[in-house]
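Input record (Table S2, row 184):
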Amino acid sequence: MFTFLIIIMITQDVHGTRCSALNGTCKMECLPTETSLTGHGCCHLKKCCYAPCESGWLFLPGSNCYFFSTTSEDWETAKARCMYLGAKLSEPVTQSEIDYISNIARSRNGTFWLGGTDKDNEGTFVWTSDNRTIGLSNWAGGEPNNYANREDCVAVHAKLGFLWNDSPCDSRSLFTCETKPLTI
Ligand SMILES: [Ca+2]
Ligand SMILES: [Ca+2]
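Output record (calcium ion complex):
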């Protein structure tokens, strides 16, 4: 019986099974950009490692893949750029997602567009992908203020401690996109 189990494990290790279906590989340790599946496709001493996000995207385990641009766009163009990438402007809805995006923005010292807007109903901010009202938020003090009656798009703002600001949609900022990770 023991020998039989060993043969099964070796067979899985060689062929990869579900690991290879995800383009995963059996390794002793996964890279930081990879995640591991336990009990799938590798013998017990190795981990099935696969990259849940496209190259150049960052992975927040339990949440999403995130893209952080290196070029600045107005909000509508940024939204279109994310859609072109098969994604959407980031819509952080949990504290860990909010903190993650703010921390990346801080590390890059940049202001990044999010998917929030009140352009259709002044004062009511929604996530643009499906018009959900924004619940959990991370506004800077005194924001949103609709300054000069022309601020309708939400950004993680470098000059406001990487908290949220409503900014003019036609101003140019970096932007962040999100999409679902590859899962089994
Ligand atoms: Ca507004
Ligand atoms: Ca503002």
